[in-house]
Specification:
Length: 231
């Protein structure tokens, strides 16, 4: 995330200096693309997701609807093709929605730590719980891409900076709460479903990052588990 400018302890300073420096950057804006007439391999699934007539055949209206979704989440190329990248995002959204208000149903995030922020990399979801009680979430997040994965395990928030800016990438990272070297919760200005992901941080919408900021403090536990698809 760039070198951390304030360090509460020598040990933390060492961690921050030796850990890989990471930041969540959005993909470049989608280039203008013509609407394709090709039927994609996930045509029916994409049509159903978008509420289009499900006939498995590309139409001009299908393409425009797919292209709008691709532009919103910066999926490139935004040509309206129902391919694996587009369906992958939609499929993840469906799986996230199916979780409902029981994100820790499998019991993988510890319930004996008191207040803890959980991150499920597999489903790209995060939430805050206190014992068995859900405090906030679950919310969709955007974690590290291949080669810059968000590291798993039990961690603690050790430094917070509400207006942090990465000195490595000169990128704003509002509401940063660092929990593992250069990896932190923070808001991001692109869709949290924007592939392929961050450079290791746990990206959130501004609304969710502000809520995490208000609910968490230094010393609170963070537990990261699972594996992000494609990493």
């Amino acid at each position: 995330m760039g070198d951390i400018r304030r360090r509460g302890a020598v040990a933390l300073g060492i961690i921050a200096l030796t850990a890989p420096l990471t930041v969540a950057l959005g993909a470049a804006p989608a280039q203008a693309a013509s609407c394709t007439t090709q039927t994609g391999p996930y045509q029916k699934q994409v049509e159903k997701f978008l509420g289009r007539p499900v006939d498995g055949k590309q139409s001009s209206a299908d393409c425009k609807a797919i292209q709008a979704f691709q532009n919103k989440h910066r999926i490139t190329p935004a040509a309206g093709y129902a391919g694996p990248a587009t369906w992958g995002v939609m499929d993840l959204m469906n799986k996230q929605k199916a979780v409902g208000n029981k994100p820790n149903k499998d019991g993988k995030c510890p319930v004996n730590k008191g207040r803890i922020a959980c991150v499920n990399l597999t489903l790209q979801l995060s939430w805050i719980q206190d014992g068995n009680r859900l405090v906030y979430g679950p919310v969709p997040v955007r974690t590290g891409r291949k080669g810059f994965v968000t590291r798993t395990g039990l961690k603690k928030i050790y430094w917070r900076d509400i207006n942090h800016v990465s000195s490595l990438y000169d990128t704003p990272m509002p509401y940063s709460q660092f929990f593992d070297g250069g990896q932190a919760f923070h808001s991001v200005g692109v869709s949290v479903w924007n592939p392929p992901g961050s450079h290791g941080c746990v990206n959130m919408t501004k609304t969710d990052a502000k809520k995490y900021w208000s609910l968490l403090k230094n010393g609170d536990d963070v537990f990261v588990y699972g594996r992000k698809p494609g990493t």
